[in-house]
Specification:
heterodimer, A: alpha+beta, Butyryl-CoA Dehydrogenase, subunit A, domain 2, Butyryl-CoA Dehydrogenase, subunit A, domain 3, three-stranded mixed β-sheet, 10 helices, B: alpha/beta, Rossmann fold, nine-stranded mixed β-sheet, two-stranded antiparallel ribbon, globular, binds flavin-adenine dinucleotide
Chain lengths: ~400, ~250
Amino acid sequence: MGFQVAAKFQGIDFYNLDALFSEEERMVRDTVRDWVEDRVLPVIGQAYVERTFPTDLIPEMGELGVLGANLPEKYGCAGLNNVAYGLIMQELERGDSGLRSFASVQGALVMYPIYAFGSEEQRQQWLPRLASGEKIGCFGLTEPDFGSNPAGMITTARKTSDGWLLNGTKMWITNGSMADVAVVWAQTGEIGDTKGIRGFVVPTDVAGFSARDQKGKLSLLASDTSELVLEDVELPADALMPETSGLKNPLMCLTQARYGIAWGGIGAAMACYAEALEYGINRIMFDGPIAGKQIQQVRLAEMVTKITQAQLVAYHLGRMKDDGTMTPQQVSLAKRANVDMACEVAREARRLLGANGILIEYASMRHMANLESVYTYEGTHDIHSLILGQTVTGIAAF
Amino acid sequence: MNIVVCLKRVPDTETRVRIDAEGTGIETDGVKYVMSPYDEFALEGALRAREAAGTGEVALVTLGDAASGETLRQGLAMGADRAVLLDGTVTPDGLATAKAIAAEIEGVDAPLVLLGVKAADDDQQQVGPMLAVVLGRPCATGVVEFAVEGAVVRCERETEGGTEVLELPLPAVLTITKGAYEPRYASLKGIMAAKKKPLEQKSAIAVEPGLVVERLELPPDRPPGRVVGEGPEAVPELVRLLREEAKVL
Ligand SMILES: Cc1cc2nc3c(=O)[nH]c(=O)nc-3n(C[C@H](O)[C@H](O)[C@H](O)COP(=O)(O)OP(=O)(O)OC[C@H]3O[C@@H](n4cnc5c(N)ncnc54)[C@H](O)[C@@H]3O)c2cc1C
């Protein structure tokens, strides 16, 4: 801190949005930014090519307080507002989408449902440990045959004399192999009955539960993506999250995570734009910096424009979330627009970097590859188009 | 054990400095301000000493304008217990600053006063030793690590090629430099808690500065580099120039 030789990242703020953030919000952002600069950027390239998640960063994230940071202090969380939470996601994703994915899953998809739909015992048991990073969680909604359409899920939970019996397979589960606890969504009624879907808090060491690493990924390499198999998993009655009553509950979790992703995309895009700008200024070709050529200036102008637009969307969405007026459809717009923006910025940055742009020494291609997952998970880009389409036309086109 | 840490709000060390119209200060527009990094070491040292002692408070004192409140809250977020903002003008005169701070510290029951070895903006290294003189307390400068042992504080300083160990009776003043005290991150909970910690704002006593800045100039542009050749054949010429022209060999 203060003694780095390389120029420290100062953020991208073409519209002086800093003036709109409170002092605390800025302090939170700058703290996470410094941490990412010091602790993540030096190791993430190596972790990526080795296809490992840098697990030693987990307790550090816990100590900083970034896990479930917008949940109450009573459960060991930082109790931040949603704008500060969004800024955390932005800064984590400036490091790597895998890191932000870890924090999104832990906070928005595991801690949030336990907080919002769990019993007081479930909250007490899990939230402080998940906040500190002592325990890791995963969220099992997607199945091999039910991705964009989770309503059709075939993982079942059947009532037994003293609890529940779960059977099924969940796929593409972030943190799946390293998780201590899984929030699993299963059908308790007839297949296809959206009101029959319930959430369960499943310790991953129960008999019949297994996780298998997803091999062959070309995106989000510094992240654990796994398949979960539940084979006659017997759970006590109190494994059920009592306040879950249908598909709307996992969708509420997704709204939380998508909100963070809308900010995360900005972080990834900032990393790529800053890299492209610096490279463009220093790379001499045809006797001048390539940033002095009109084509590259168009690229950079597009990037800074898109980032600025995305910042305004995220900022206002955050204020609406804190006011309690935000709708899931508004989150869809932001997730869709900001991740698409990040994909474009990453790809253009990679191109500006020429051959160097394909190397792991630079961040743009890593972000570019990662963002294809971000584009796909938490509702694909297309699914958000259909949500918006339905919102404006009143006609569902799924 | 109570400890006072004096700190200063300075432009981020990454700032590209521009001289203002009067030619005596820097353009402050668009400049990001931070706690002087040496003061961060001092604060970290104080927090660890308080943790080791298990009791006492760490109080922060700064002389500056209202914006310095943000820097104090940063220190509170890192773990200090309370803060005092002495509202006044910071001049380049270290003695004026030392007197203003001393007026506050004299009334505080704190056997240890810590400062950064220097402020990262003006690099003067004056305030710490001058504060010690005004308070009539012993002073060790450029301390890399210290430990309070009963009524004394033992300090390590790095000297050319070795280490010097000093012992000072309390109360004492130490200026801290880079060494054992890599500053912690403010935790996000700490940032929230900082809001509830006391931050007292009072007018600094007026001290007429004994020195003024006449002129501030940026260093002249460095002459462009020269390519003396390529490959191993260029080495003899390079060595000759380094020896005869640059005189660095
Ligand atoms: C790295 C990674 C991590 C993930 N982590 C998790 C996790 O932690 N937990 C979890 O539950 N899930 C997770 N997922 C799963 C993710 O949410 C799903 O992949 C996503 O919902 C899409 O489902 P699918 O892959 O089955 O694609 P499909 O639903 O089969 O979609 C295939 C294509 O068809 C399009 N499409 C689908 N329906 C329509 C339609 N009606 N009209 C037009 N086009 C349509 C889609 O947009 C897409 O282009 C993760 C995925 C990835 C890649």
